[in-house]
Amino acid sequence: MTDNKNIVHGPEGKTTEIFIIVSVFLILIFIGTAAYHFIEGWTYIDSFYFAVSTLTTVGYGDIVPSTNGSKIFTAFYVLVGVSMFFYGLFSIGEHFVKIRITEIEQIMQAQGRAAGQTQKKVKTRDEILKEILKEYYEGYDKR
Question: Whole-model pTM above 0.85?
């Protein structure tokens, strides 16, 4: 059987990508915290809180930018930060979906070999993904 980590971008490649995504997100939080602290004069805790709630699109509304400079900064911060945050989130999710697809393909190939079949691929990736999603939603409905 093939190692799942090697099939999905190699172990170091994906680990490095996830590390970069997390690092970029932490840098964005740091930049936001520093900017709001200096532009608005907020405490570091309030600045950190606002930066995180803005990047994660929670936005409680209890703290709001009051100066024109911070409003302009926030507009760009949201455009860049939220885009990068969700790109990272979806990239990590994609990684786990690919691992699951690979596991299912390997099981199906093993079953095919055990049954004396010579076909390596029984179903397409789309069919496998549909099965995964169906399993997920059926499991979700049972909760």
Answer: no
